[in-house]
């Protein structure tokens, strides 16, 4: 190590020691008023029957009121899900999604996190490896 390197190291050590002596951790008083943590309610998910369509385009908000009809869907049967917003089923943990623009029926690519597989998904069809 050169002479200037030793000087730089010595200056850094000296500055560190000098600055560490300047720190003061004063005793902080306990809070004057103690309250329990409030109970938080979980956020609500998307409303039933939201799906695509209707005149609630992107960024317009749903505004569901008494005039809005709620549709009920039967429970899943294996890999078949009856909700119209579900495009792909029976896949492992999904890491990424790339929708195909203007596809009819809705379709796209989905990437599985664990296996690394890329699957092409389409409404009412089984996912196919790409």
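Q: What amino acid sequence fits the structure above?
A:
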């Amino acid at each position: 190590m050169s002479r200037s390197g030793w000087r730089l190291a010595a200056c850094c050590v000296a500055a560190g020691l000098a600055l560490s002596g300047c720190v003061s951790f004063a005793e902080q008083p306990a809070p004057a008023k103690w309250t329990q943590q409030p109970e938080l309610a979980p956020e609500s998910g998307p409303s039933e029957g939201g799906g695509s369509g209707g005149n609630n385009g992107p960024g317009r908000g749903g505004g569901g009121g008494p005039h809005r009809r709620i549709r009920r869907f039967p429970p899943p049967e294996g890999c078949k899900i009856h909700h119209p917003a579900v495009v792909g089923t029976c896949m492992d943990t999904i890491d990424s999604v790339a929708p195909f623009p203007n596809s009819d029926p809705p379709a796209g690519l989905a990437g599985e996190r664990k296996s690394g597989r890329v699957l092409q998904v389409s409404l009412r069809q089984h996912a196919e490896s790409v």
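Q: And what stands out in the fold?
A: Residues 47 and 64 are 8 Å apart (CA to CA).
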